[in-house]
Amino acid sequence: MSRNCLQLIPPLLAAIALWLLPGVTAAAGRVALVIGNDRYDAAPRLNNAANDARGIAEALRGDLGFTLVGGAAQIDRNRGQALDLLERFRRESAGADIALFYFAGHGVAESGENWLVPSDDRTIAFREDVPLHALSQQAVLDRMQARVNVMVLDACRNNPLPSRAGGRSASRGLQPKGGPRGTLVAYAAGAGEVALDGNVASNGLYTRELLKRIRMPGQRLDDLFRAVGDAVYAASGQRQNPAIQDQLRDGAVYLLPGGSGAAPGPALVQQPVPDAERLAYEAAQAVNSLAGWQSFLNSYPDGVYASAARVQMSAITPVASPAFEAAPARKPKCEGLTQAQCTFVGIVDSCELGGTGHKIENGRVTINGSVIGHVNAAGKVVDNGGRVITELTKSYENNCR
Question: Taking the complete model, does pTM exceed 0.85, yes or no?
Answer without folding.
Answer: no
